[in-house]
C-alpha cells in the first residue's frame, strides 16, 4: 500500500520547502502532504508525451502531459494504493486510467467543475464510478458535485482552503509609508476597475500585486488607465508579505463567479491581521461573514466599496481588535496544517485494511 500525489506540472517541492524554511516563500501544502504520508509525487518531470498522449489530449481538449502522467501512474499503482490529484485538470485523466483498477483509490481536489466542458468530462470519463472522493474548497462546487453526480457527503467533501499562516504574519510597517494604503493581489476573475472607481479620488495609495504577460488577462482585470494613486507590479514573496503588513485595508475585488476565486488573497490578508473588503460571490459563500475584520460588497458596487474602505480606515482605533479577530479566523480555518490533516486522514481511511491483504 502506498500514497501518491499528482501535480499538473513539474514542481520542485523540496526546493520550495527548503526556501520556506529560510523564510523566502510560503510553504507548499503538497510538500507537507508528501512528508505526512511518505507519498510519491508525480509531476510529469520524468515523462514525455508521445503520439498517443497527444492524440487523446487533442480529442479530450486536455494537456497531453496529464495523460502521460496518468499512463505512467497506471503502470506503477498497486491494489490498496491511494492517489491525491491537486486538480480536476490532471485528476480526471488519472481517474480514467487508474480509477478502474481494483482497490486503487483516486481522490481529486476540484476547483471549477460546473462548466459544460467539465460536466461533459465528468460524464464521459465516468468520474462518478472511478473517483473515491471528490474534494472542493468552494461550497458551491461541493453542492454542484453532489447534485450532478448524485453523491453523498462521504464522497464529496468540503475543505477550507489554506495558506501558510507562519509566513503571512503581522509585522512592522515600512518606515517610508506616507499615507493610508489599500492593497490587492491576483488576476483571476479580478475587477480592478471597480476598485479604481472606488478609490481614485481618495488621499491614499493603492498597490496591486498582479502581473501577467498576457495583455488579454490584464485588459479584463484593469481599467484602460490607472488612477494616479494606483500602481501594479510584480512583488516577490517577502515583498508581498511586507505589502500586507503595510496595508490599512486589503481589497478582494471580483467579478461574479462560482468557484473560490480570490480566496488566497482573502486568507493571506486575515493571516497578516489585516481587515478585508471583499466582493460577495457565489464561489466564496461560506467564507464570508460581514462584520469584524470583513466587509462585504456586491459585485461592481464602487460606492459601497468606497464606503467600506473609508470606514475601515477611519476605524483605526479598533485595528488591534480586528487584527486579533482576523488572525484567529485564519489560524482556526485556513492553516496549511489543518488542510493537510483533513486530506491525509481521508486517504488513510481509504486504505484501511489494505496492508492486511
Automatic annotation (TrEMBL):
Any GO molecular function: glycosyltransferase activity
S-adenosyl-L-methionine in keyword set: no
Keyword set includes Transferase: yes
SUPFAM superfamilies: UDP-Glycosyltransferase/glycogen phosphorylase (SSF53756)
Keywords: Transferase
Pfam families referenced in this protein's UniProt entry, alphabetically: Glyco_trans_1_4
PANTHER family: ALPHA-MALTOSE-1-PHOSPHATE SYNTHASE, GLYCOSYLTRANSFERASE
Name of this protein: Glycosyltransferase involved in cell wall biosynthesis
Organism encoding this protein: Rhizobium wenxiniae
Amino acid at each position: 500500500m502506498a500514497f501518491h500525489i499528482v501535480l499538473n506540472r513539474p514542481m520542485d517541492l523540496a526546493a520550495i520547502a527548503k526556501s520556506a524554511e529560510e523564510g523566502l516563500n510560503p510553504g507548499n501544502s503538497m510538500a507537507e502532504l508528501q512528508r505526512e504520508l511518505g507519498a510519491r509525487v508525480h509531476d510529469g518531470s520524468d515523462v514525455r508525451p508521445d503520439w498517443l498522449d497527444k492524440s487523446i489530449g487533442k480529442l479530450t481538449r486536455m494537456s497531453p502531459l496529464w495523460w502521460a502522467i496518468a499512463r505512467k501512474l497506471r503502470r506503477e499503482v498497486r491494489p490498496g494504493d491511494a492517489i491525491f490529484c491537486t486538480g480536476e485538470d490532471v485528476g480526471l485523466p488519472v481517474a480514467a486510467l487508474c480509477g478502474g483498477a481494483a482497490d486503487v483509490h483516486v481522490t481529486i481536489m476540484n476547483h471549477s467543475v460546473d462548466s459544460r466542458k467539465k460536466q461533459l468530462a465528468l460524464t464521459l470519463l465516468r468520474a462518478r464510478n472511478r473517483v473515491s472522493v471528490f474534494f472542493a474548497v468552494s461550497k458551491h462546487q461541493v453542492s454542484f458535485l453532489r447534485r450532478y453526480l448524485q453523491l453523498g457527503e462521504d464522497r464529496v467533501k468540503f475543505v477550507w482552503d489554506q495558506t501558510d499562516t507562519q509566513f503571512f504574519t503581522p509585522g512592522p510597517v515600512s518606515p517610508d509609508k506616507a499615507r493610508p494604503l489599500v492593497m490587492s493581489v491576483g488576476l483571476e476573475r479580478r475587477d480592478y476597475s471597480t476598485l479604481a472607481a472606488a478609490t481614485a479620488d481618495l488621499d491614499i495609495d493603492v498597490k496591486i500585486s498582479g502581473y501577467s504577460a498576457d495583455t488579454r488577462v490584464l485588459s479584463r482585470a484593469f481599467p484602460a488607465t490607472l488612477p494616479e494613486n494606483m500602481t501594479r507590479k510584480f512583488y516577490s514573496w517577502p515583498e508581498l508579505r511586507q505589502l500586507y503588513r503595510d496595508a490599512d485595508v486589503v481589497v478582494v475585488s471580483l467579478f461574479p463567479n462560482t468557484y473560490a476565486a480570490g480566496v488566497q488573497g482573502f486568507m493571506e490578508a486575515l493571516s497578516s491581521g489585516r481587515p478585508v473588503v471583499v466582493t460577495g460571490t457565489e464561489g466564496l459563500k461560506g467564507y464570508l461573514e460581514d462584520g469584524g475584520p470583513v466587509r462585504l460588497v456586491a459585485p461592481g458596487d464602487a460606492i459601497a466599496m468606497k464606503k467600506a474602505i473609508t470606514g475601515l480606515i477611519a476605524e483605526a482605533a479598533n485595528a488591534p481588535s480586528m487584527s486579533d479577530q482576523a488572525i484567529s479566523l485564519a489560524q482556526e480555518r485556513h492553516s496549511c496544517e489543518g488542510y493537510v490533516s483533513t486530506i491525509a486522514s481521508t486517504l488513510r481511511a481509504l486504505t484501511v485494511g489494505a496492508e492486511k491483504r
